[in-house]
Write a structure and sequence with these properties.
Radius of gyration: 17 Å
Strand order of the largest sheet: 3-2-1-4-5-6-7-8
Oligomer: single chain
Number of domains: 1
Helix content: 25-40%
Shape: globular
């Protein structure tokens, strides 16, 4: 049962107890593009017991330079279903639930219900705001991540302890941010950001204490710079501020 995980079980402070924590964990990945591809494979490979993977899109050839879950045989298939099949081949011990739905007010309760952690693989602020509000409502940590061009950011929003997504991005709309179809995205940047996102989620599950609770990391692989800064809770936040308590 444990043989495939021995190289992580021998890690300091991990052990069989840590592996059991992963096996009992339920993790939701919203968005199965570049970030979601890598996050899904790492978490499945490490033995997270239950994955709920969510994406409404189908696989296109333009995705394949960075979305490593898929290959040419998956073109035209729903990403969530193709991802489920790939993950099941990688590790049949993982229970994978695939949802081919849009993140909206009608679907979000089904999407995050029963989850211990939600990981961000999204590409728009509208959906992130919906996820943020639902995670706050249910007390679920939300590991935010984004990447564009050669840079990206990661943070952990933990209800009751930290700022939320809206505290940081209030007033920012999807019209204000660049799109990868216009400015591009470097696969190596996706890989770096996704790896940090996975590390933070694993630390939450194992109880190690996330380094990015209440903080945000900004990474640029072009300049090879890494900055971590504190983020403050906004008492007037329309989602988690005093008026909402």
């Amino acid at each position: 049962m444990y043989e495939r995980y021995l190289r992580q079980i021998v890690l300091k402070d991990f052990g069989f107890e840590g592996q059991e924590k992963l096996r009992r964990a339920s993790v939701c990945i919203v968005g199965l593009g570049g970030l979601g591809s890598i996050v899904s494979l790492y978490l499945a490979g490490m033995g997270v017991g239950r994955l709920r993977i969510v994406d409404k899109d189908v696989v296109e050839e333009v995705n394949l330079h960075r979305q490593i879950l898929y290959d040419m045989d998956d073109l035209g298939e729903f990403k969530s279903y193709a991802a489920r099949d790939r993950i099941s081949r990688l590790n049949p011990e993982v229970d994978v639930e695939a949802l081919a739905c849009q993140i909206d007010e009608d679907s979000i309760e089904e999407v995050i219900s029963g989850m211990d952690v939600v990981l961000d693989g999204l590409d728009n602020f509208r959906a992130r705001r919906i996820v943020n509000k639902a995670c706050l409502k249910h007390g679920i940590p939300y590991v935010y991540a984004s990447v564009i061009e050669t840079y990206g950011s990661v943070s952990v929003f933990k209800p009751g302890e930290t700022a939320c997504f809206e505290c940081v991005f209030k007033g920012v709309s999807d019209d204000d941010i660049p799109r990868c179809e216009k400015v591009g995205v470097l696969p190596a940047a996706v890989g770096v950001v996704a790896s940090i996102e996975v590390a933070e989620a694993i630390k939450l599950i194992l109880g190690w204490g996330s380094n990015l609770i209440g903080r945000m990391a900004f990474i640029d692989v072009y300049s090879l710079t890494f900055h971590v800064f504190d983020i403050s809770k906004n008492p007037e936040c329309p989602v988690c501020g005093k008026s909402m308590m």
